[in-house]
């Protein structure tokens, strides 16, 4: 049974809130950017924060990563999440920015668990070749780890929710409309 466009948008908001407070199928998203030559680049990211009032997602990443350079060059991004249990796909489009505010960046860093912070111990930048069979060198300097940490915020401008569990399939697209959202049903 088809849901109303506003109810579909509300379900996406709720699912993103849940995904950033506990592990759900929407916690792991695919983030797409454009490379310097315009080629598409996609990688998995963990959604770590969702500000429902501003429609802004938060993602932690290595400041030396290609995605940071790509976002700074062209902030347009897309994310895709899929819930196999409910058969719902959500595509999110918006503009990303690398957080420059030092205090807010520190707050985001402090909210990460020890295991997540340890991910920034690698001395080499992401994508740097390593010796075959070797592991990248790491350090134990947590201040250096913080220096490698970046917080990316994605201001969502468009939501595309496709429900494949219904017959016929149900698709709703919502776009920012001033301070609010305009949601409408579209052909799947």
UniProtKB/TrEMBL annotation:
GO molecular function term, any single one: coenzyme F420 binding
Example of a GO cellular component annotation carried by this entry: cytosol
Pfam families assigned: PNPOx_N
Keyword Ribosomal protein carried by entry: no
Transmembrane segment boundaries: none
Annotated ranges, domain Pyridoxamine 5'-phosphate oxidase N-terminal: 27-159
Protein name in UniProt: Pyridoxamine 5'-phosphate oxidase
Keywords per UniProt: Oxidoreductase
Keyword Transferase found: no
InterPro entries with a match to the protein in the record: F420H2_bilvrd_red/Heme_oxyg, Pyridox_Oxase_N, Split_barrel_FMN-bd
